[in-house]
Structure formats: structure tokens, C-alpha cells
Amino acid sequence: MTSRTTRSRTRAACTVLLLGASLATSAAPVALADAPDDSGLQQTVEPDEEVVAEDEVVTDGHVDVGPRFLDGEWTMLARDDRDVPSVWRDPERTVLHLGDPAVLPAPEGPDYEFLGVEPGTPLYVVPQTQAPDVVWLGWNTQDPEVVDAIEQGATLRLDALDGPGELFVFLQEGVSGPPNVLWNSAEPLPQELWMEVNTHVHANWVFTEPGIYRLDVTMLADLADGTTAEDGSTLVFAVGEDTDPGEALAAVADAASDEPTADGSASPDASPSEATAPAVTDAPEAGAPSSDTASAMLVWGAAAAGVVLLLVLVARVVGTRRARAAAERDAGDES
């Protein structure tokens, strides 16, 4: 669990500056004339909200990631608040599609140098406050069972990112505060952000290139009973008007099929070409020696036969010499 000095204080983030106001021009960010409307942050999560198991593409509207207990198991889900009543979805089956309305130019100023692009460069932005025709993605720890179970809060950890560009997640507090960077994929992973218990928070999510992004994330917490809870999932983004959300879903499914199961074998959904099969050899018949054993027996048999033959030849030579020596002695005696 990350120390409090590195955690983002999310309650303070409820008064925010819309990133779109600072990115809508290449000039330095300026304060809005009016404070942003944070009424969308005031919400109540009911304990009996439905969990649906289906693929879904979200092009606009309100979605939060957050934990729930399903059959007693700590589970990371995505709360779809676009309709009433709200439902919870599997993040790996929920594609967040950022089209042309999400494109904003990178602002000027040293506060935004962490983006690593020139001012005016087109970026794909999920803004901190809701914007028309753009996904509004946040996180919450408001499920009643979660509120009762966790001690102080939970951690959302970015473990890996697969995509054509970089991802930055940051908060802006007040009406003109500097960016508070929570995740920066250009830096080593994993990276963590802190979520206070019973809070609802939105941040700016900025992607530098169009394409499919898969964010491997883990949600974990210390529970009030002294145990810990942890669950991982994948956040799926189709970034760019022409990026196919269906391909994003397929990419996640393909990645899941490549993951080994607990016993080290390929996933049951993997095709035979994807599964790693062990080498297969013909087993010897019962009682018959293996090919290696037979080869060894032949080698040793040949060696033994060679030794016997050599001994026979030596014996013959020695016998012949002895016979000659005896004949010569007999001839000398006769003379």
C-alpha cells in the first residue's frame, strides 16, 4: 500500500477545473468565469444494483470503476451510470471509445511539459468534468458493503499499458491549480493512486496517439477485519474516431486466451496453434528396452565381442610361438 505522502487526496478533488478549458486553446490555462458544476459527483450507490455480463461500447456519459463484493469476493467492476437504474459491467467487456469530440490541443506552459508534446499537438482527452459527447470516466468507493468493509480507502494501481502512445492521468484542484499527475505511462510502472473510502472522483485521462489501449490495473485495499483484498482487470479504450471498438474487444479476448492457467497450461479458449504442447514420442512396449537402452546394449555388445576376438588372437599367437620354441629345442637335442 502506498504511503500517504504519495496518495492523491480525492475528497479535495471535488472542486476542479475542466481540462477542456485549459486545452481548448494553445494559450496558457486560464480560470473559468464560473466554478465548474460538480453535481455529477453527488451520487448514491445502491446495494442491489445489477451486474450485467455483456459487451458494451461507451461513447459518452458517466462511468466509474470501483470495487464491489460479489458472492463475498472483492471484485473490480465498471459502474455504468448512463441510464436509470445504474448497472455494473465487466471492465474487460466495456470499451470506452474516444472520438473526435475528445480531441483537444496540448496547452502551453511549463506545468504541461510532462505531456512530452509540443503545444497545440492534438490529444485525446477524457476531461475531469463532464463534456458533451465524451466519455466521463472516474472511480468510486461508494458501494455500501465496500464502505463497511474497507478501513480507510483503496488503491488503484496501473500495472501495465499496451497501446501506441502514452497515458497521463492527473487532477487539477480549484479553478487554476497546477496538474497533480497520478499516472504517467512514460515513467516506470506500476504506479498507484489512492481512493478514500466513500468517495467519487474524476480526473483527466490524456492519450497521445489514436489506437487501442489496454490498461492492466489492480484494485486493492486493507479491510477493517485485518485482511487484504485485491482484484485485477483491464480497462479498454478505443482512441480515435476511426479506431474500431470491436477490435479492442477482440484484442482483450486474444490477450486473455494467451494467458496460462494455474497449472501452467494454455487457457482453454486458446486454439491448438496457440497452446504450447509438450513433445510427443512413441512409448516403448512393455518389457522392451528403449531406443537409448538398445543402442547402449549394441555398443557394449560390440565392444565385448571385440575383446573376446582379441584374446583369441593373442592366445593363438602365443601358442604358435611356444610350439616353434619347443620344436627348436627338440632339434637342438637331436643334434
Number of helices: 4
The assigned structural class equals: alpha+beta
The coarse overall form would be globular
Question: Taking all residues together, what is the mean pLDDT?
Answer: 77
Q: Give the amount of beta strand, in percent.
A: 25-35%
Strand order of the largest sheet: 1-5-4-3-9-14
Q: Helix and strand string, N-terminal first?
A: HEEEEEEEEEHEEEEEEEEHH
Helix content: 10-25%
Uncertain regions spanning at least 5 consecutive residues: 1-37, 268-315, 331-335
The radius of gyration over CA amounts to 36 Å
Distance between the termini: 115 Å
Count every beta strand, where a strand is a DSSP E run of 2 or more residues.
Answer: 17
Q: State the major sheet.
A: 6 strands, mixed
- Kindly give the count of domains: 2
